Amino acid sequence: MRRGLTLVALAALPVAVLAVFFVLPVSGMLARGFVVDGVLDPGAVLEVLGRERVHRVLWFTVWSATVATALSVLLGLPAAFALHRLDFPLRRVVRAALLVPFVLPTVVVGIAFRQLLGEAGPLAFLGLDGSPVAIVAGLVFFNVAVVIRGVGAAWESLDPRPGEAAAALGASPLQVLRTVTLPALRPAIVSSASVVFLFCATAFGVVLTLGGLRYSSVETEIYLLTTNLLDLQAAAALSILQLVAVTALLLVAARLRAVTDPTLARVVPRPRRPRRGDLPQLGATALLLVVVAAPVAVLVSGSLRVDDAWSLGNYRALRTPGEGGALLVPVTDALLTSLRTAVDATWMSLTLGLLVAVVVTRGSRGRAERRVRAALDGFFMLPLGVSAVTLGFGFLITLDSPPLDLRDSPLLVPVAQALVALPLVVRTIAPVLGGVDDRQRQAAASLGAGAWRTVLTVDLPVVWRPLLAAAGFAFAVSLGEFGATSFLAREESPTLPVVIYRLIGSPGAMNYGMALAASVVLAAATAGVMLAVERLRVPSLGAL
């Protein structure tokens, strides 16, 4: 009875928060799609899905996500080997630099590629500005780190003896790779590819910034239907389709993550010094580093140019509302709003994530308790099945009338961002808590330690680093979150990503220069947080 009451007490707050801020908005979204004038009408959803433009949107979403996933895997595999199996100078710096793009705000990535490929960019001669190629390039830039981290972690712990045995029997390095290494890494590769496909299919800021109205994914189409065309029923129908597809992808990814390979070494081998045969992988890694650095370098360079001269004018202009009153508040105010919102979203997601991690990782006594914990684990992971745009849309149509009229609440945006960050927080903390031997807690209790003393002496020494890493992830995600925030941010208190998007849509060279400068500031903030997290050496992307 005591264990049951403890479980209920720990799960009560996360369950209540998800019921109000997840189940209710998603249910409202489903109702908006299936119910017309108070009558259940599934045909309305089918009518929307039968539109020619919707077919084009679906095809472009699947096509761009598939191509971007294939390229991310092809570019990420050599770098995963070089950064996780070889030991060379500045290896950790290079690994951290290639991780940074994943946490850059999507709006910043889109602007960086526009600056690189646009009319005044160094690659303007390619004529790729506003093309599908530019969108795919932005998606690859954003997601190649997932492959490097996910496959690299598996490669790092791969038992080298089967490959060495094959080489001793006369197999060439290519044959060893094809017949031994890749089959052993197949679960990690397929799992990482499925996660990359999910991120590409639900990309918002990159597609919206680079594709505009000409090329639209399901995410951006939901946004345009809601904000430009006011067709909420069509937006709800697409949200339902996306919810089903994303949930199916997550189930596949979870099944693939559960596959373990018998060739994983019990003792992780130490990275070795590079050899002559490793030059192709090192060269590919160096090339990838240049490709990743190019858009960022062009973005920084563009932010320092005013009227074809080097200047800090764009940064000084951040204290103004822009040319022609493009904004209601200065960009610096939006930056402060983003920081305050990120702090609120971080403590919210940490509180919920820690409670969830404790609930799902504690050992169960009996089949009933095990089933309850498994059900709660599945319930808490539901936000993974809904994109940020869909979540923001659900907030928009359900939390705007009594008794839950929260549209004017300053906590609505941080709550939405906390839900977006929650799965990442749980995936960071739960594996560590789950690895703590419950016998240590029992031994502490038998020696007279109370519940809090046991937590302080057994759990806290193990979990404090993952907690700091989870806080960093949540803070970075909140700073750059654009999908849900684009629906919910108020005109007088926008966040920095929302302001950047408004600036690039406003005429005037000063506004565009301010967007570049604001993008650099936002990128520097998120990159700084993630570089600090990387020093904690806590698994992150691979855990998704």
From TrEMBL:
Chain ranges of the ABC transmembrane type-1 domain: 58-253, 335-533
Q: Which residues form a coiled coil?
A: none
- Write down the membrane topology: Multi-pass membrane protein
Assigned keywords, A-Z: Cell inner membrane, Cell membrane, Membrane, Transmembrane, Transmembrane helix, Transport
Q: Which InterPro entries match?
A: MetI-like, MetI-like_sf
Q: What PROSITE patterns would the database entry show?
A: ABC_TM1
Span-the-membrane segments of this chain are 57-81, 93-113, 133-152, 195-215, 235-258, 279-300, 345-363, 375-399, 411-433, 467-489, 509-533
Please report which protein family the annotation says this sequence is part of: Belongs to the binding-protein-dependent transport system permease family.
* Name listed for the protein in its UniProt record: Iron ABC transporter permease
